[in-house]
Design a protein that fits this description.
By secondary structure, the chain is of the alpha+beta class. The protein has four domains: 46 residues; 147 residues, Elongation Factor Tu (Ef-tu), domain 3 (Beta Barrel); 55 residues, RNA polymerase II/Efflux pump adaptor protein, barrel-sandwich hybrid domain (OB fold (Dihydrolipoamide Acetyltransferase, E2P)), CATH 2.40.50.100; 112 residues. Helix content is 37%, strand content 32%. The longest helix has 51 residues.
Length: 387
Amino acid sequence: MYINSTCLDFMQFTKYRSENVISQMTKYLILILSISWIFFIRCRNNERTITPTISNVVESVYASGIVKSEKQYEVFTKVNGVVGIIFAKEGALVKKGAPLFQIENVNLKLSEENARFYSLANDYKRNQEKVSEAKDFMELAQIRLVKDSLLYMRQQDLWQQNIGSKIDLEQKELSFESAKVNLKKSKVAYDDMIRQLKLASDQSKNSLKMAEAAGRDLIIRSEVDGYVYKINVQQGELATSMSSLAIVGKENFVIELLVDELDIVKIVKGQKVIVKMDSYQNQTFEALVNFVYPMMNERNRTFKVEAVFNNKPEVLYPNLSLEANIIINEKKNVLTVPTEYLLNDSSVVLEDGTVKELKIGLKDYSIAEIVSGADTNTKIRMPKNEK
């Protein structure tokens, strides 16, 4: 039988299309089965169960902070002026009392010189001539009183003998009374002179001491044995009591932490601190709480807590940032369950779907202690509302 070649081509094309369609359907079927299997596995995983395990639980308080030099402080000037000399360099080791800056203030120097001149002019010993003069007036008044007293007594005797006149007696009495008044005035003047001279002398000496103290403040000295970590000014710049000139601190370092007011009541001296630093990303360091500052910062509602390193890093600098966990409680070898398996923080879903109440003890961010209500054989399922 003769078959047209065109028909043969059509039959072959039809066969090819049929095989291709079957191949595509097979691929789609495999894909659907694979997706179904994945959903099946996920569903099975959602319903997977665990049992409580024995492990350690650590309760801690999170805190952020920085590294600070021990006794670190900012250097300020007590008097305004121009920075004349900078004695130290950044990173230099200085002793307590060593000069750091010299401030130039012309008015303050002139005030000190004036106070010195005033002190010399009012020195008590240099004014003894005035004291001697006042004393001479007092002694002269005393002599005059004695003389007028004798003349008055003599005139009285004569008057009793009917010798002399009444006017003479009254004049002698008046001279005697005037001499008493003059003696009293000279004594008051003498005492006032001594008191005024001593007061002026003491005041001038105090003024000189104040001026000298202000002059000494022109030299700013280190308050600790340590390092100059930073200098904030240059020679010739204006220095005021409102701007920091430098940062100085001891060689040893401490940790300054900020703890939220909700957690501060849990913090006491001696608690262990686990420290993580950006400068040492793969390491942790231990420290101990050394001091809790009692005043809260009202702006950020935190308390400052100081800690000291047990094992400090080899290299430290002031103001390095860090994060820390302050250990407030720790239990070892207790029955625990992951916190993600807890329902409402105190219940679990059992394998059969029932909810059971547990007594939860210590808890951290990942696991919680089971005090009662379950054991190592209890099968617990992940709560559906958690996924």
